[in-house]
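Researcher: Here's the sequence for the chain we discussed earlier.
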Amino acid sequence: MIFRNIGNLKITAGTLPFCCLLIVVTLTGCLGGLQTTTTQTNETASTTEAETSQALAALQISTPKMNYAANEAIPLNLNIQNGKFDLLVPFVSVATRGAFSKITVTDANGQTVEPQHLITQENPQKYVVGNDGKSVRCVQGFELKASENQELSMKDIQKYFQLQPGTYTVTLAIDLEVYQESIIEEHPEVLELRKDLARIQNDPSLQAAAKADAVSYYQEQIKFIQERHKDVAKDIYLPVKSRRGKATLVSNGITLTVEPETNSSNLQKQDETPPQIDKSDTAPPKKQIGFADIINRRASEQVVPKYKTRATPQYPKSAKEAKKDGTVVLQLTIDENGVPKNIVALTNLGFGLEAAAIEALKKSTFHPAMKNGKPISKEVEIPYAFKIEDVASP
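Model: Thanks. This is the structure I predict for it:
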């Protein structure tokens, strides 16, 4: 009623104070209502974000035991329990050491322990041909099925944190990116056939009948190759432009203790009764080692991986300009076929030095490690030294 009849209100000297009071009351009520609405919206957004993260997946970390001797390896196990939906996520986030890149370790005083080496994992982008024949910029993907578990393990967090004796709390976070689309990279033969097919379809010089026959032939060849390779595992790629968003997942916290070194083992050895000495005058005959024994012994020994060919890394231009040098250390697994996998940079020199070392490593070839005369998979560390004085002046 106030607003309906306000146009008929005549402002006089007597009514002027009343009008001013009415305006102040009205504006105060509007601003108050706006502030309340904004607060409720922010609270709702925070609640929705937390619920969305929980609905996507849950992280659970564990370690085999709670107490470790000094310098003992401390393994860490990760279980990713997916939620209600099938998710398309980057491969590096859930299937490599990249899942462990955001470990947080705090000591008994609540102080964060800084890692000696960063846990990094390469996540390269790649152009992949889609079903429409166009190249799309992608990252390698992984499909997390609804309600399924994904398990990963790290052999030793001591490689990165080098914990001193004491009690620590360990937690893990993952920034999980979610994508809307995926592309399965086709077999190289199929890609070549599709290129030829597109060229024929766009050739104006071909007669309609000849073009139809050629298209039919290429389509049959594509189906044949796809059927022949249908059981081969294929990599999934996620178009960068189809990224929907990101949710931060945080694990439970586990407590572990690194025990100080003791001399009890040395004291125990001193208290032990020395073994009885055989006083027999006749020493047992020594066994003669033959050529066959030497061959068998060498075959049983483990031989580390070796280079077939070693590529030299290119010195990055940004590092040259900044006069930045140093040694990059890469950790990787060379499988039984001599193929380097799971490449991780243990250093963080920057200026493109780690990327240059990784690129050189990928161009190198290896003989695999051997054990009992058979090739095996072996984890190794390889250094790449960059020295600014070795760079020729332009």
